[in-house]
Amino acid sequence: MKIFTAQQIYQADKFTIEHQQISSDQLMERAAIQLFEWMHSRLQGAEVIIQLFCGIGNNGGDGIALARLLKEAGYTIQVHVVNYSETRSKDFLLNLERLKDRKIWPDFINDDSSLPEISPNDIIVDAIFGIGLNREPSDWVGKLIQHINQSQAFVLSVDIPSGLPASQVPSTTDHVIRASYVLSIQLPKLVFFLPETGVYLNQWELLDIGLNTGFLGPEQVAFHFVTLPEVQSMYRPRLKFSHKGTYGHSVIVGGSYGKIGAVQMAADACLRAGSGLVTAYIPECGYESIQTALPEAMVLTDEEDNFLTSIDIPFDPSAIGIGIGMGTGEKVVKAFESFLKKTDQPLVIDADGLNILSKKPELFKYVPKASILTPHPKELQRMIGDWKDDFDKLEKAKALATKYGIVLVLKGVHTITLYNGLGYINSTGNPGMATAGSGDVLTGILTGLIAQGYDSLQAAIFGVYLHGLAGDVTASIESYDAVKATGIISNIGKAYLELFKRPEVEGGNTA
Ligand SMILES: NC(=O)C1=CN([C@@H]2O[C@H](COP(=O)(O)OP(=O)(O)OC[C@H]3O[C@@H](n4cnc5c(N)ncnc54)[C@H](O)[C@@H]3O)[C@@H](O)[C@H]2O)[C@@H](O)CC1
Ligand SMILES: Nc1ncnc2c1ncn2[C@@H]1O[C@H](COP(=O)(O)OP(=O)(O)O)[C@@H](O)[C@H]1O
Ligand SMILES: [K+]
Fold this sequence. Notes:
Helix content: 40-55%
Number of helices: 18
Strand order of the largest sheet: 1-9-18-17-16-15-14-13-10-11-12
Number of strands: 19
Bound molecules: ligand NAX, adenosine-5'-diphosphate, potassium ion
CATH topology of the largest domain: UDP-N-acetylmuramoyl-L-alanine:D-glutamate ligase
CATH class of the largest domain: Alpha Beta
CATH superfamily of the largest domain: Ribokinase
Largest sheet: 11 strands, mixed
Number of domains: 2
């Protein structure tokens, strides 16, 4: 699913009006009807007070039109116009007239008005600002937003939480609505997915208002939101006339004394992802434990007991995952360096592989093109230095990925894969996955997918989705709290089954 900028959304709006020969007011009415139906199907006429806070632009217009539909259905409403500007939009004014025609009189909140009382049992509709926000709200509007946030009422935001810019971090954090739920008009916004801006919303859902696919289809975007249909189309089914050689021989390189489990988990996940054969390449001390715990894997050991001193793989692997639990001691760095210099097949590099690259950035030029690097935020910071905000982080990370022709997987709540100037935002995963070893599992999955013939970008997008889905399956059985990395591995199979079982809920997602 494409993520459009505010400018592109305005273009889509215009294109739709022209090509469907409708008025902008009819488009607003579509939005209002969708908003109404969403609320009505849940409230079923409940006797609750709905307080609508409407700005004076088209976001406010949506709110005013919604107020009319709610009133007509018999709901108890209070409409407040947040009168932050004299420049009112045409469709806002039209809908305000329609409201007055029905003898509904909103109160106007100005900079000297007292703030309306809000009970925690009320429902707030937040239609103050939409994607048209282009500067910080004035202080009094900020105070109103704070007042709403402190009310403990359920806050339903129209399109985007008011005060949150569509593609920027807000400068005053407490002048942004904290939305319980966002009903976003047709298209998700980039800010929903980034740690600094995603915190302003709990859940979101898309409302389809029939924007023209003639515009949405061909339009180029910088970011995609990866959902089930995209991932399904990447899946490579297993062939009837195949053998284990068809699905590749993966090697997982890493481990050190006390950190052999990381390799074991990655090797296990690699097998579960479908790699035909898997070899673990580890220091001697891990030999027995891996052979015992993972009989399907083969093991090659370094001469040194406790860490790797040389990496010589005596065959041509289909895929190599390297760096987990490896350490960054002098001899390990040397082994990694000489391995990089003699390898030209794309690698999956994680953990200490990334830490060594951060320590010796001159080694980046030896990283084979199309390798996948999977930093968590701390590893990323070591690689690219400090960032001003999430948008700056994305730009810096994109530049690094483009400079070296690598696939950069920024792990996090919504893991973002960057390649060739574009970003792919993952939709699966949960807080239960914030647990030791879940990154090692991802390394194993990605390596196993490359071994089976997925190209690096597909492996990253598909693998990150599958990993998160395996985490979701695990959490659904065991709770978020009890998710363990080995549990995620054992549910990779169920995640594969889920890929073709679950019908997608239209646009719905937990932010
Ligand atoms: N195609 C779509 O996506 C549609 C969008 N619609 C709604 O239209 C909204 C966008 O409407 P608008 O472009 O009118 O913008 P907004 O309603 O977000 O903002 C209103 C106006 O306020 C001004 N403004 C911005 N920041 C301000 C500030 N800090 N203080 C005072 N004034 C400020 C701007 O001039 C802006 O145009 C969307 O978010 C959505 O809710 C719907 O009407 C249906 C169609
Ligand atoms: N709150 C969260 N929501 C979704 N996914 C998460 C969350 N926290 C962590 N993850 C995922 O779990 C993995 C953690 O990786 P990492 O930090 O490298 O773990 P480790 O080093 O313990 O193996 C990443 O894939 C990340 O995206
Ligand atoms: K809003």
